Amino acid sequence: MQPCLTRTRHQRDRGAVNVMTRLCARAAVVAAVSAATLVASGASASADTVTDWNANASMAIVVTAGQPPPVAVLSFAMVQGAVYDAVNAIDHGHRSYLPQPPAAAGASEDAAAATAAHDVLVSLFPLQQSTLDGQYATSLAAIPDTPPGAKAGGIAAGQAAAQTMIAARANDGRGGPFTPVIGTTPGVWRPTPPAFALDPAPWVGNVRPFLVPNVEMLRSAGPNPLTSRAYAKDFNEVKAIGALHSTTRTPDQTDAAIFWQDHAFALWNRLFRTLAADHHLDTADSARLFATTNLAGADAAIGCWNNKYHYNSWRPITAIREADTDGNPATIADPAWTPLFDPATPVAAGQAPLVTPPFPENPSGHNCAAGSILTTLRYFFGTNDVSFTATSNKSGTTRTFHSLSDALRENINARVWAGIHFRTADLQGVKLGRIVARYLHHHYFQPTHHHGD
Description:
Elements: H1 14-41, H2 49-64, H3 69-91, H4 109-124, H5 129-141, H6 150-168, H7 229-241, H8 251-259, H9 264-278, H10 283-311, H11 316-321, H12 365-381, E1 388-391, E2 398-401, H13 404-417, H14 423-443
Antiparallel strand pairs: 1-2
Helix pairs in contact: 2-3, 2-4, 2-9, 2-10, 3-4, 3-6, 3-10, 4-5, 4-6, 8-13, 9-10, 10-12, 10-14, 12-13, 12-14, 13-14
């Protein structure tokens, strides 16, 4: 268990002070009980309804529906935003994300969370309704109706929040028509070997944002000019360390590269469930944690994909194989160059082979996500000193990070080590994600005065 975090100068934000105060107040009460439970069960903490339904959502979105990461996070954002609004209508701790009607006094937060998640998921995946209905019945059966009418009040709050979210996201551009431009000239993206696949969801960049007023405010600087020193520096770095048989990449760097290629938002949401358990968050704080991180991740994905097709820049495998066309004397072509992310690289059993992602290079999608999510977590906890351990399905390995910035730094490096990104694209992705996180922090989820702020 992570101890009660020490307040720092970063906690001048009232939301961070609020969550840290509530965490620390519970710590003494929880410690004795949780210690005995941990010894007996080996688990970090028992799940609550919010984390249960986040796990259900991950199964529905990632496993059953098979949505790719930039699409999956839009679904996660809808589910978790509705769950937050349903719970917050009862808790009143922070401002709502979308306008919500008042909930009945004493309504069940658990029933509200289960209902909101269930109803949004059914609207997104009607073919999964029978499975989701069964999960919902199990959830409601475990929730006591104390005081009488609490469960019905929670159900009503959850239904209202789900309906508001579904209406708010109607006709938002999801699944809209979009035809990628396939380039033939130096610097322009084209499908990459070995599969020469196309983006399954190029339309993501045209989706209406969840948080920021418009996607144009997330415009990144774009790739370096092909003839620049900066381009040559990035080129030669990834050519050396990102090659399939690199002599400079270490085994740990290879593991990190593969580790972070797990489905990004399945991995991130597993982490959120771990953090909620390790920090003993109550229902309201858990709901806010899941909502803020997934909403930030959604806008980061939208902004990222908008930039990807705005710049339409080529991947390292194309750039290195065709370097004799780029006009830069500091780059040397290698027509046989292959990145680490190649089907020849071993991954965990049952995982799809590694390949260069089938869409333009700049900015990095993983780092747009990492920048938005890790910055949001820093705002939420009021400190960078949040340690965690995570396991990747892609690599089958576990990695431990002693701070949020450690995880971000590894994300940046991992895409270069993988041979699929120039460093500039990683840094620009982080910057875009941080812009989203800062906008969320200043414009959404502000604490109310109900908890003594």
